[in-house]
Amino acid sequence: MATLLAARGRQGRPDTDRGEVQLTLPPALPATLGCDAVGVPARHGFRLMSRLPGNGCVFADSEWWWWIVPAGSDTELRWPLPACYATDAYVPDRRPRLIHRPDSTSPYTPPIPLYLMVCQLTGVAPAWTGPGVESRL
């Protein structure tokens, strides 16, 4: 799966031979911060949806659920397997459909709570990969 999503051309366009589709947001929910997606296997979808403090647009197909997050939500984060990060919201074309539309005017699920929930679900300790922070007492 990760290989499939990483197989993009240089301009960020999908490898159409691999069967990707870009998730399309409802017109009333503009993605002013750009648009990426975080996917988890469908067996975890309801659990995450019910426990997150806020859900933006969520798409699903028979195998994966995809949460819309602001572009760059993978910066300094390593999303644990089996989660899959999809830049520009290009996902495998298994006919994903919008299953949750937020009540707010934002299409985004807050990425940090989503990341922490995915870590908890997978039993992986959260880890930020950015430069270390030093503190002096």
Helix content: 10-25%
- Strand arrangement within the widest β-sheet reads 5-2-4-3-7
Q: If you average the pLDDT, what whole number results?
A: 85
Quaternary form: single chain
Structural class: alpha+beta
Separate helix tally = 3
Sheet having the most strands: 5 strands, antiparallel
Low-confidence stretches: 1-11
Please give the radius of gyration in angstroms: 15 Å
Element-level helix/strand string: HEEHEEEEEH
Using the alpha-carbon principal axes, give the shape: globular
- Termini separation: 45 Å
Q: Please state roughly what percent of the residues sit in beta strands, choosing from under 5%, 5-15%, 15-25%, 25-35%, 35-45% or over 45%.
A: 15-25%
Question: What's the total number of strands?
Answer: 7
What does the model show?
The structure is a single chain. The protein is an alpha+beta fold. The protein is 18% helix and 20% strand. The protein has a five-stranded antiparallel β-sheet with strand order 5-2-4-3-7. Strand 3 and strand 4 (64-69) form a beta hairpin. The chain is globular, with a radius of gyration of 15 Å.
Short description:
This protein is 18% helix and 20% strand. With 137 residues, it is an alpha+beta fold.
Task: Give the SSE map.
Blueprint: H1 2-6, E1 20-22, E2 36-41, H2 45-51, E3 58-60, E4 64-69, E5 84-86, E6 90-92, E7 97-100, H3 111-122
Antiparallel strand pairs: 1-6, 2-4, 2-5, 3-4, 3-7
Task: List the main descriptive attributes of the protein structure presented here.
137 residues; alpha+beta; five-stranded antiparallel beta sheet; 7 strands; disordered N terminus
